[in-house]
Amino acid sequence: MSSENLTSSVADTNAGEPAAAKKGNPAGKVANWADERLGLATLAKKNLRKVFPDHWSFMLGEIALWSFVVLLLTGVFLSLWFKPSMAEVEYMGSYDQLRGVPMSEAYASTLDISFDVRGGLLMRQMHHWSAMLFIAAMLVHMMRVFLTGAFRKPRELNWVIGGLLILLGILEGFAGYSLPDDLLSGTGLRIADGLVKATPVLGTYMSFFMFGGEFPGDDIIPRLYIVHVLLIPGLLLALIGAHMLLLVFHKHTQWPGPGRTEKNVVGYPMLPVYAAKAGGFFFIVFGVTALMGGLLSINPVWKYGPYDPSKVTAGSQPDWYMGIAEGLLRIMPGIETHLWGHTLSWNVFIPGQLMPIVLLMIVLSWPFLEAWVTGDKREHHLLQRPRNAPTRTAFLAAMMSIYGLLWAAGGNDILAVIFHLNLNHITYFMRVAVFVVPVLVFILTRRWCISLQRSDEARLLHGYETGIIMRSPEGGYTERHLPVSEASAYTLTARQRDQVYDAGADADANGVSRDGSRIARIRARLSRGMFENNVQKPTAAEIEDAHHHADEVHELEHAMEGHSADGHQFDGRHPVDGEELRNH
């Protein structure tokens, strides 16, 4: 080959550069341009292969997330026809019973959505049911997180975010069901006006600012609409985004088991498994919500009529998540203070404004209280069984009893009518029960958890009960026990031993008081209350001694004439292929 041809041949090659198509894919060019500037490919590759554990209890948070998505979708549909105005119009729609009745544009547009917009009533009811499901799923999800200790370091901030999400969800729900301006929602706004006015010194000014004058004013519906469709949804989206980012950053918690440690996650990757499951679960939530919206009537505003400040719907009740505030208001004694010509309505301010926030703050502060009492600074990615944290589990049970009692107290009039009881007797009973019942529930739940701990200890040391009864040569009867499986033993022992904090002496060797001795004594007292009665997991030596003793008993049993233990292999927990009972 001549030098000229060789030079031409080299010029026609890539000369060390990678081969590229003459005509590139436009979408690929755009993706490559974005990746070179943002590094999206590396980020996506890392996160799309992220592993998530698989357990049914982890789906509770997903229910809340997908319910919020359904809320956004149905809310966009409703916003196209709803008119957030308190201007008075005469209704001329298709609902005969209210035709010709003067009402606000908000209420008239709600009736039009329900009866004249194709699919409007379905969307209204789906929106309302998904709001119920959103708050309920968040509450149950937080209960799961609390019971399993998933709020411990490094997830304390995510726990607080969850509490704020519930608070915002409740406020969003209240603003939403107040928008139709019907008689029931107007009654709820009247209660809210009373709560605001009970604020010392500033109450009247705050009420006038909210309603644009004396209740009901002309501005509350437009202002609630902005709060409902813009302000609170924006905050919810921001907090949900922060919640999910922290979830990815901290990695997901998991239940203890073989192969699972504090430093790994055993489960399925985001793509393709987890994404497919999550996507399918969204359609399940959407379908169930659509089914409820189509078959189960909720908030039939046409039965209540337009709001009139001079009327109240008989047996009116708020949505269930407002029941705690309603119950507190109904059972609070009439306590007022008159100072310098002003009345301070403690019977409204304390139950309506102060106590709900106090109860929420107690729950949100628990992770920090527990970390301070235990002095535990380690990161925790393995979950705890509720029985292994008796005090925490009992505390949640007590809080649930308070919530249930106040919920029932909020319907004391309904209970009195249905069960033919005296309304005052119900109120007096609730005033005592909210202090007595939670204490009893706390004690019983704590003892129950400790009993379950003892049961786990017995299973580890002595094995599980096979149901096979043996008779000794002396005529005594005992039940055959067999060791639990290695996987069960791992699960039962995958927990830390509780350490009771010791405050030490109040003074040093020279009789000088130690700094912080009083706080240390408080911390020691709380530590003893939390952990002193707990049943700690057996040590390795105790388990070895118990198994050695069991082996000796097993040898003695088989050494006995007649082999009275025969049949234990048919206990349903072991393979029995080829096994036969001996003939006696």
Automatic annotation (TrEMBL):
Low complexity bias spans: 14-27
Localization of this protein: Cell membrane
Reactions that this protein is recorded to catalyse: a quinol + 2 Fe(III)-[cytochrome c](out) = a quinone + 2 Fe(II)-[cytochrome c](out) + 2 H(+)(out)
Keyword Transcription regulation: no
Signal peptide stretch: none
Membrane-topology annotation of the record: Multi-pass membrane protein
Compositional bias segments (type: Polar residues): 1-12
Domain Cytochrome b/b6 N-terminal region profile: 30-256
Record-listed E.C. numbers: 7.1.1.8
GO CC aspect terms: plasma membrane
Example GO BP: respiratory electron transport chain
Gene3D superfamilies in alphabetical order: Cytochrome Bc1 Complex, Chain C
Co-factor requirement: heme
GO MF annotations in UniProt: metal ion binding; oxidoreductase activity; quinol-cytochrome-c reductase activity
Swiss-Prot/TrEMBL keywords: Cell membrane, Electron transport, Heme, Iron, Membrane, Metal-binding, Respiratory chain, Translocase, Transmembrane, Transmembrane helix, Transport
InterPro entries linked to this entry: Cyt_b/b6_N, Cytb/b6-like_sf, Di-haem_cyt_TM
PANTHER family: CYTOCHROME B
Name of this protein: Cytochrome bc1 complex cytochrome b subunit
Source organism: Nocardioides guangzhouensis
